[in-house]
């Protein structure tokens, strides 16, 4: 099996999601194989104290890697991965590394050009 590939923003389109009311979605422009990296989740990095600051603006794009590395995935430091929407039948999953303080999306299966990328946000997101 070939070595997994790491994709970049130029390999995707951001356009209206196939999910009604979801806003924008992320769509593959090229074939993505199972285990390929779709991209790393990026944004403003804050710590637990800043996260709990009552003056911090609300964001729905929060990814908790560890106490000292919480990614706010919107604003000038965010990238295309913030447009990956939720599905109970995802074609991608999130790999979080506490050691490397990173989060990346990996394909669960082959994804065809034009297909929207989805991952399961998990039960904590909906609470």
UniProtKB/TrEMBL annotation:
<dbReference type="InterPro" id="IPR050777">
    <property type="entry name" value="SET2_Histone-Lys_MeTrsfase"/>
</dbReference>
<keyword id="KW-0489">Methyltransferase</keyword>
<protein>
    <submittedName>
        <fullName>SET domain-containing protein-lysine N-methyltransferase</fullName>
    </submittedName>
</protein>
<dbReference type="InterPro" id="IPR001214">
    <property type="entry name" value="SET_dom"/>
</dbReference>
<dbReference type="GO" id="GO:0005694">
    <property type="term" value="C:chromosome"/>
</dbReference>
<feature type="domain" description="SET">
    <location>
        <begin position="10"/>
        <end position="122"/>
    </location>
</feature>
<dbReference type="Pfam" id="PF00856">
    <property type="entry name" value="SET"/>
</dbReference>
<keyword id="KW-0949">S-adenosyl-L-methionine</keyword>
<keyword id="KW-0808">Transferase</keyword>
<dbReference type="InterPro" id="IPR046341">
    <property type="entry name" value="SET_dom_sf"/>
</dbReference>
<keyword id="KW-0158">Chromosome</keyword>
<dbReference type="GO" id="GO:0008168">
    <property type="term" value="F:methyltransferase activity"/>
</dbReference>
<dbReference type="GO" id="GO:0032259">
    <property type="term" value="P:methylation"/>
</dbReference>
């Amino acid at each position: 099996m070939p070595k997994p590939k790491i994709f970049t923003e130029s390999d995707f389109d951001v356009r209206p999601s196939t999910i009604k009311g979801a806003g924008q979605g992320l769509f593959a422009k090229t074939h993505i194989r199972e285990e390929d990296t779709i991209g790393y989740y990026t944004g403003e990095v804050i710590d637990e104290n800043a996260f709990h600051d009552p003056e911090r603006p609300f964001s729905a794009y929060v990814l908790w890697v560890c106490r000292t590395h919480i990614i706010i995935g919107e604003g000038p430091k965010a990238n295309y991965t913030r447009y990956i929407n939720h599905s109970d039948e995802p074609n991608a999953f999130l790999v979080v590394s506490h050691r490397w303080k990173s989060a990346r999306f990996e394909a669960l299966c082959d994804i065809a050009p034009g297909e929207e990328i989805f991952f399961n946000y998990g039960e904590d997101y909906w609470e």
